[in-house]
Structure formats: structure tokens, C-alpha cells
């Protein structure tokens, strides 16, 4: 399975491309914003496609030509304004979903936020609410398509070394999770068709990742 990783140069994205390239059944194409970012992925043996998420749907669809799955791991980051949150986390996500349709790609994995309910938007701090709202509407847009989607909702992200063990379910208690383990969860979701149509939260736990993902 060839996988287009959108937001490949992000922290989860880099782990994800590395793990995909280590897999016997998956192969990555890294979608990056700048050509100078390509060497990291080329050294892993991955293909690259240089596309800005603020480009149009056709540009993203071209990057997705010939792939079997798309993973959206892009994010505007905590230090950008509301405008970038809208342009990347909402508009960029929706354009990628629409590009999947144009390119004929059915499998789509969305990396979302831990809680994207209406209640979470209302209760979020003012600076964080636009991000939660963007993720909420991107998730809802995806769920209303006929794509074979999986929505992964990680807890508070850390750069700790991955444990290889998580807790995954539609609802779990808030907690942290290493970005490395989130990337492994995505790989497990891609490899398990039973995750299609599922939306689940992930935090550090005591269950091996493949087993945890299979149980959702």
C-alpha cells in the first residue's frame, strides 16, 4: 500500500514516514512544502511531492495520484494565529479530503485533536478554541464522505520515546502520548481494515499498539 503523508515534515509525520518505510506492506510518499525538506525522506527511500497545503485541490490531488491511502498529519502549530489554523487545520484538511476524491483514493486517516465535540469547543481556552473548532468541522466533513476513513484523536503530545503501548477507545481519560507512538498507531490503523469508519482517542497505556488498535 502506497501512502501519501500530508504534513510529512512535522514531528508525527517524520516518525510516520520512517515507520512506513520499515514496514513490509507499506510505502510512503511524503508531501512537503519545500524542496529543501526532501533529503530526509529520500534518505529513507520514500518518494516526495512538494505541495503547499494552501495550494488548490488539484495540486494536492496530483500529489495523491497512484497512492492507496492518505494520512493527514498536518497542523498549523501552537504559535500561529487563527488565520493559519483556519487555512491549515480546516481548509487544508477539507481540500485534502476533496483531493482524495479527485485522485480516486478511498482510504483516509485523519490525525485530529483529542476531543472535538461541540462541548470541547465551548469549554476550550480562547486561544485553543479555534483549533478545536477547525478539527471538529474537518472531522465532520470527512465523516460525511464515502471515504474509508479512520480518525485518530491523540492526547497531549510529547516528544518522549515511544513505549509501544497505548490505551485506545472511542472515549478514554485525558492523558499524554508520545508522538512516536501516535505514528505507530497510524501504521497499525492502515494495516487493519477493521479501523475503517472508526474514530478513537489514544493515550499512553499498557496494551501493545497493534492489539489496542485492533480492539477499537
Automatic annotation (TrEMBL):
InterPro entries: NAD(P)-bd_dom, NAD(P)-bd_dom_sf. Gene3D superfamilies: NAD(P)-binding Rossmann-like Domain. Signal peptide: none annotated. Residues 7-192 form the NAD(P)-binding domain. This is NAD(P)H-binding protein. It comes from Salinibacillus xinjiangensis.
Amino acid at each position: 500500500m502506497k501512502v501519501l503523508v500530508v504534513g510529512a515534515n512535522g514531528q508525527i509525520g517524520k516518525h510516520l514516514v520512517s515507520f512506513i518505510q520499515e514496514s513490509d506492506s507499506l510505502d510512503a510518499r511524503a508531501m512537503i512544502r519545500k524542496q529543501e525538506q526532501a533529503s530526509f525522506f529520500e534518505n529513507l527511500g520514500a518518494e516526495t511531492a512538494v505541495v503547499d497545503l494552501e495550494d488548490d485541490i488539484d495540486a494536492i490531488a496530483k500529489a495523491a495520484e497512484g497512492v492507496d491511502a492518505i494520512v493527514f498529519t498536518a497542523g498549523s502549530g501552537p504559535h500561529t494565529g487563527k488565520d493559519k489554523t483556519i487555512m491549515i487545520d480546516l481548509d487544508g484538511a477539507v481540500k485534502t479530503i476533496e483531493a482524495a476524491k479527485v485522485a480516486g483514493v478511498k482510504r483516509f486517516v485523519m490525525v485530529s485533536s483529542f476531543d472535538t465535540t461541540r462541548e470541547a469547543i465551548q469549554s476550550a481556552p480562547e486561544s485553543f478554541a479555534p483549533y478545536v473548532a477547525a478539527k471538529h468541522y474537518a472531522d465532520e466533513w470527512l465523516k460525511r464522505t464515502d471515504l474509508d476513513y479512520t480518525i485518530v484523536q491523540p492526547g497531549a503530545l510529547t516528544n518522549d520515546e515511544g513505549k509501544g503501548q497505548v490505551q485506545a477507545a472511542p472515549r478514554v481519560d485525558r492523558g499524554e502520548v508520545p508522538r512516536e507512538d501516535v505514528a505507530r498507531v497510524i501504521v497499525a490503523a492502515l494495516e487493519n481494515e477493521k479501523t475503517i469508519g472508526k474514530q478513537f482517542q489514544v493515550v499512553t497505556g499498557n496494551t501493545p499498539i497493534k492489539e489496542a488498535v485492533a480492539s477499537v
